[in-house]
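Give me the fold.
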Amino acid sequence: MSTTIQHRSYRNKYFAENRANFEVFVRYANEKAEQKPKLEPIDEFIPQDGQFASPIYYINKNYSKIQDELPNPYAVSEKSVAKKLQDKAEREGTVFYPIYIESDANTGLETQIEWLKEFCHDYLNTIPEACKWFYSGNRSIHVHVPKLATEHNIDILRELSQGFEHDIDSQIYSRKRQFRLPGAEHNETGLAKVEIQPDWSHDEIIRESATADTEPPESFKDVLTDTFSLDVLENPQRYLWQPERDSETIQAGLNDWEKYETCRGRLHEKWKAHYSHPVSPYAHAGGNRSLVIAKIQDGAFSEKRETHQEEREEERIFNFIPSLVFQFWGCNREFTVDEEYRPVKLSKRDYKKFAQMDIGEQDCFALIGGRSRNSKIFSIPRWLALELGDQETHDEAITLLEKFGYDTGSSGRVESNYDTGTSENYNQPENTTAYDLQHQAEKEGVETLSHMDLRKVANRLLQQYGIDDTREWLKEQYGDDYDKEIADKQIRHLCDSFDDLPNFEESNIERLKI
């Protein structure tokens, strides 16, 4: 064990054993980002001009008294007593960083939400529904994640965000960083930071910010407990985020000779399988699903490649499977590939699936992808791959897969239980949050559920029992207040949002039988 890890382990143990000797503080800043000279107890009122808040600092009670003894909180070195206390907490490892995600890219709010969902699911291992979602009041979306980071993992978060393929803010993952408080008005627009739902349209988001009667939180403790459970301040280590380690190391692509040397025949095919324009199972997803039928030509690899975003060029890391693509139907059906050597681009989740499957070079596979980037992947025999590649349409190929016993309707989404810090399969019938909420509605009335709670229940019912039974459950709970048009609108949105839920259109027509 390295000296650094030993030291960190000792500090964590010391903090846990002496938690009662620490008080919890936060530092505020006004709209101009001018920070207050003193740390404030986390359960006291937020200053009237407090618009931003820092990470949370656990300070020894005896040491925190120096603030009260100073007639002038600026009368210390390095500008203020607050910074002195912050530095001390950083040295002692008693700083906890609430994890936020933000995108202020020059693109639509709905697109930003999709990016943030992906980062939340793929990099933080937390389902988006477990988070609190906010509109900043200007052009960005904020996500409050029910996880805390240490000073070590905040650096890892910054690296992950910098390597993410979409434009999110990596600068928020830094020490002493301030983040806008809920209810704070943006000085450029006059609109408040308000809570939203991640399935809202741009117009719904703006309308909420303009019309909501938002009361700012009384204390930063209220902000935290709105995202976490009530014991977060007494037991912060229970909510620590840990970076996920890949099950295998992704290899590099071709060596320099193979990559740049002019070549023909099989060598050229190998080059094209690595460096032709990639096939993306996720592009232009909307509510549709793509389908890739291919044979693996070489091992998976990871490489930095240029990406064009908002009129600027960046380099980001992507994962690929070099392949002979027998057939590809994109999500929008406009982009297709027929018998070409191309790399298949993989999300982080899909790469992990490949790493865990008994599938290698010259094996064939089918991949059903979409917006969730959590695809259904099958190892298939070569004869079936060729047969699928000969199909005229995406739907015919899907139907043929189903004929040979492949379950094309689920992608195995995972729910993160943020109350206990454990994970469990989302489709388990018992011992999940959605299961408990369903029985709460049946026992105490559906009106006791929030909109987000009802979405969780609907997700579970759709996955377990399908669309018709979900309608019947809603009809039973709402009685005379049941509105089929509203129910179908919400069911359609859920089905279109997640690949592991039934296809709304196909479930409302009679399927073609073979």
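The radius of gyration is 26 Å.
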